[in-house]
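Internal ticket #5521
Category: modeling
Description: The requester needs a full-assembly model to guide mutagenesis choices. All entity lines are attached below as received. Residue total reported by intake: 746.
Assigned to: D.W.
Attached entities:
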Amino acid sequence: MIFAHGFGCDQNMWRLVAPEFAKDFRVVLFDHVGAGKSDLNAWSPEKYASLNGYAEDVVELLRELDAGEAIFVGHSVSAMIGVLAARAAPELFSRLVLVGPSPRYIDDEDYAGGFSAAQIEELLEFLDSNHMGWSVAMAPVIMGNPDQPELGEELTNSFCRTDPEIARHFARTTFMSDNRADLRDVAIPTLILQCREDVIAPQAVGEYVNRQIPASELVILDATGHCPNLSAPEETTAAIHKFLAT
Amino acid sequence: MSSSEQTARSGGEFDVEELQDLYEHAPCGYLSLEPDGCIDRVNTTFLNWIGHSQEALHGRRFQNLLNIAGKIYFETHFAPLLRLQGYFDEVALDLVAKDGSLIPVLVNAVEKCDADGKPVFIRVTVFNATSRRLYERELLATRNQLDATNKELRAFYDTLPVGIFRTDASGGIVESSRRFCSLFGIDRADEWQSVIVDDDRLSTTRELTRAVLDGAPFQGRFRVANGDALTRHIEMKAVPIRGTQGDLSAFVGVVEDVTEQVFAEAQRLQIDRDAATRQLTGGLAHNLNNILMVVMGNIEILEEDLADRPALRQTLSASLVATERAAALVNRLLIYSGYSTFRDEVLEVDQYLTKMEKTVSDQFGALHKFTWDLCAHAACVELDADVLTEAITELVSNAVNATPAGGTIQISTRWSEQETGDWSTIVVSVTDTGTGMAQETMAKAREPFFTTREVGQGMGLGLSFVDGISRIAGGELRMSSETGKGTIAEMHLPAKWISD
């Protein structure tokens, strides 16, 4: 069972959920290249200009683990990375769990992605012109917890710390992606976990994903926000357990 | 701290009204949120900033008050951070006020949990950061400008024809322009010493070490050979940089490719040397020639006078033969030095060489085969026939000597229009596939009395003669050779037409 984190943070996003499955499964956690404790030298703007670059890494990882068919749990943008990986190497996947997936963030004719093109442009422009504001914002976080310097170091250094250049690039790759056409090719049982009030992936998007993936099941969580894996770990865990039991 | 606050504290109790006022009008915004981020209550300071009423904000999520980038970053970065760490500090965000204006703020948040670790509520303080944001923007603009200037400067350095470098106090390269690496043909600047040719490396390293120890300027020339690339001559100059205490802190310097310069200098030296040799040879030969003329004249007179003494005549004619040989030798030296001319005769080269085929085969044909590749039909040169015969014989003799095991020697003629684009020059060449010559031998090959043959095998006047007659005829002798591959000797001669 492999857990993939989304845009923003690293594998710590799963720390309240993943241990619940360690009894029944071999649990694999990883940081995408460019995030957390990954080797930043392996990052290249060319490879990671599309989500396929990240999906290739997932396929490579599973091949290397040689663990047979995996249950892939992806949060946020990693939900779509899982869809792409399962499409590229179906033999490596048995089930998909998509937490707050969005195949396209920008509205398009009848499709409501939750953001207008202008809003995403504003986000990207903001990141381009204002990264110093962000790095200032992150500085005390990186410095850690003064009472428990080791804990602070361990926790904050591997969490939400991203090179501003890489963060900008990942934001662009994520928010400009359009993988709607890839959903139809998902042929394995898929669970879609959707929060009630999610600014990043609204409920309508979850419903759209549900309609497009033939063998999919949509569960609306009582949780709000974009990270039920942190804000409502019990509910999230229960929903995944239930899906795996069927 | 005001005196009333002190009074309150010393009393051990805060006045409720005073606390109320502290909450509502504190110099920072204050928000209480539900664990899911919904606003429960905010203070007056915050309401004044944002322009909304308490009722309008109640139940709204805090992130909904942010601009779009803030919303996304709050969801993807700061909300998770708060859950994982229990707090976040000094997060830079922009609030959107009711009138649509942006309020730059710094936000701190603490999550309060119950005994089981379940979040109960979140406290948020908001500080106005308008001036600070302006200051950050100034910093950012300055940094961007600095980056741009650096990039420009870097681009300028990279376009310079010289490589630029800076070292630390011990002489190790710490920074260099792209040209530095390309001059050496290396990827990393600190590899530069590894591509210096062995003969030059030790002396360069030694001088550099001395410069570092003395804190003195360094200047050196060395050759660089990298893989199959041609050997280049590089000149390096560096000056020491001293810190405020006068201690050596760095060297800055330039490297330049001086290969062309080195070749030009070598060529100029060679030309000077050739001219000097010719002058000396010519002067000597000219005076010797005058003396020989006197000797020969006297021998002729004596021959007549001693007609009746046959015993002495034999000695006399032996003297005459020896003197004539000396005269021929001196004549060659005169030709080499340009002091002599020869009889003008217009020769049709191909026709004349055809006549030479048999003579050459008879003279040299024991181990060697000769191919005659005559392609300058009807071309004529202004040259004495005997002189041409002698020149060809000398060149063929050299070629034969260079191929002691035997082989094929090619004698050819052609128009040089391929090289020069005109029909005014004809090339007579002799090519062998023999031992060839090293660069140093080539440089001296046409000097008089220079020979690589064993003592008694030749005087070393052959090529100087051919060189001389080519020049006198208005042309030149060109040679190319490669050790182990063979030699090509070409007489480039101006073409004459019979009607000229």
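Resolution: model delivered.
Comment from assignee: Chain A touches chain B at residues 6-9, 12-13, 15, 76, 115, 119-120, 122-123, 126-127, 130, 132-134, 136-137, 139-141, 145, 155-156, 159-160, 171, 175, 197-200, 223-227, 230-231 (CB under 8 Å).
Ticket closed.
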